Amino acid sequence: MSLLAAAELRAVVPTGLNDVRLQAIIDREEAIMVQRCGPHYVDANTRITTVLAGGGMNLYLPRRLTSVYRVTEDSAVLSQANGDFRVWADEGRLERLPAGSRWGAVVTVLWVPFDDTAHRKAVLIELVRLALERTALHSESIAGEYSYTAPDWELARAQLFRQLMLQVV
Predict the structure, then answer these.
(1) What pTM value is reported for the model?
(2) Which residue of 104, 121, 141, 168 pairs with 74 in a disulfide if CB–CB is 3.0 to 4.6 A?
(3) Could you tell me if 75 and 26 are in contact, meaning their C-beta atoms sit under 8 angstroms apart?
């Protein structure tokens, strides 16, 4: 099921497209979003598996999280209860413990993302708006009386996708 229905989009984005064509654009943009930013939150049982390169003191998941179910480091299962790592949910960060320890080479994390459905819907609306407004023209001038320059569409899309991902500083 799509995160956004054509009727919801039509309420905030005026378009002459019929619902079938509009939903096709929504579905295409949503598929790209999931590919680039990971699956949507469905419920508290929605678990995502992420494989990360270790070596540092912290691991960064791409999004905020609600909980961590399992962490496997180089084939060994670690436990938060045993003090092997600490979770910084709002940062999407897992810190290896004891302090100063480093993660093994390959770490697999099974985790539940934070419910960011409202934010994803807002970004999806803007992605579809961009798709509807996009033109092949980058710049046009007619006799010095009329001039048109299009925005950098790919930059605008990249900025929207970045809103959904945590930025490691």
Answers:
(1) 0.76
(2) 104
(3) no
